[in-house]
Amino acid sequence: MIYDFKYQFMTNQNVNDEIYVERGFEDTLTRFTGIMGRTLGSCELLTLTNTVQFDDYSKDVYLMPDKEEKSNRLEKILAQDLQKTFDLGVRLIKS
Questions:
Q1: 63 to each of 57, 60, 70, how far by Cα in Å?
Q2: 26 Cβ neighbours under 8 A, 6+ residues apart
Q3: Where are the domains of the chain?
């Protein structure tokens, strides 16, 4: 029996989309995903940027800029990121 496995590569980045591209994270991870796909079979990349590390940023020492933006992001983006992750799992099960 031959199995056709599909691989998922998921990353969480504390940087915003702009820094993710500027510092070459996007290019590096895209190339890595291509190498993994050619080596192991199909491979998919899911990157979540500007991720939230704390429930309440006011309780922690956080040296990154825009502590308020991070706090607001928890309510706005978390549900979308969770949905992307769920959808990735569904695709993995179906493949």
A1: 11, 9, 12
A2: 20, 47
A3: 6-94
